[in-house]
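Q: Got a minute? One more chain.
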Amino acid sequence: MPDPAATRAELVVLRPDLVSRYDAALPGAQSAVLTRLYGALEREPLPGIADKSRKAGRTSVAFGNGETVDFPTTAGEPFAHETETGDPIALTARLWPASKLVDEIAESVANLALARAAATPPDLPAPGDPDSLGKIEQMLVDGHPLHPCCRTRTGMSVADVLAYAPEHRPVIRLRRLRVPAEKWHGTAQPVLYAHPWQAPRLQARYPWLTSAGVTRPVRPLMSLRTVAPVSGGPHIKTAVDIQMTSAVRTVSPAAVHNGPRLSALLTRLTADLPLDVLTETAAGAVITEHGPDRRLAFLTRQAPRLGPGETAIPLGVLATAPVLQKTVDDPYTFMGLLGSVLFAPLARVLDRGVALEAHGQNTLIVLAEGRPVRSLYRDLGGVRVDATRHRDLGLIGDLPTDDPAELRTKLAAAALGATALQLITALARHRGAEPGKLWRILAEALHDTGPLLTDPLPIKATTAMRLATDPLADQWTHLPNPMAA
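A: Always. Here it is, folded:
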């Protein structure tokens, strides 16, 4: 698994032009990951904590093993500005010495420094460029804004990261693997679209997967394993046996089964809203000894349909300083428009029985002359559906639920605890806006949504999950709701 020293050693051979920039970026990458780790210490139920106290603007966290961590309380706030210096790898090793999190933090620091070393000044492409979304998504350098494992690519070498990670702006081609008809499951034709990192590993194990050529050039989007053709056209979500942040990114049999059904439902539910769902139009998986195999699967997704002069920007990219400064003149007007085209429609869809996981990677804003005019939602694998209202869909896996609290939590954690909080923090920091006024504008858009306005904001406890016996089981922490009266 790469760490800062090993990554530097490989760069000397692979990219000597990046070595000095990597060295310069490393302290900032350490600070960024350390700040995310302080945030986890401030708000998450982490194992080993014996006591936590706050005094005179500082937080002190005492552990049962005798270790104590002290830091400015502001450094533990969500999306805090990275100002603290220190080594998050050493800190993690002190607090949880036997945990795999130590290696994951080391890899995250190394890959974040590598991303910053390779970054170029962002330049939004002109509207109408069929390659614009891929170029925009590859502008995101720092990855997950809260997770200490913000840039993990576990399973990839440094050379692989340079070749395939979106922050390094590659253009690649997927491999097309022909599948015997009797070994195919799904609605797509029996040809597996495989990521070039994954394909040789699959063919080595299953030699009956034969080559059917490659796709036209594509760009990896923010999720790395999802790609967009540079000349335009449907996006393709592939499976890769790589852990990024919290999970290995495969395509489950449930996703293959649910996508078209859920796409049809959401198309109906959003027909009268300024929220368009990028539907999943086809999917398939190879049948192995495991049944329809999540490591040998893909799905295709509708690309955004944009009018003249329109640009689609994922919220995670929109919240970065360079993009905010290029796109937002009046932050209060901007937030009011977001309330109309994003947050109110999300609440309306929730009222209709579906909770969309509208975080910065899954959700895009369409801008026309700098004004938000509608929103786009993609990736149906993380939604939750009211099983009592939509039982006839025949969904499988963990999407159906009969718990209203689970539905609200899924939406509130992504749309409010992540998206709104990140945007408001960024608008305050980079555009001089007053956070309280922005929250009041958002509250006006959500005026009739009850618990969304009053309940504490849920935030996923990502570090606690990485340290848990079952790292995929959701854990939550909560913050006071700024919209509560």
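A: Residues 166-267+277-301 form one domain.
Q: Perfect, thanks.
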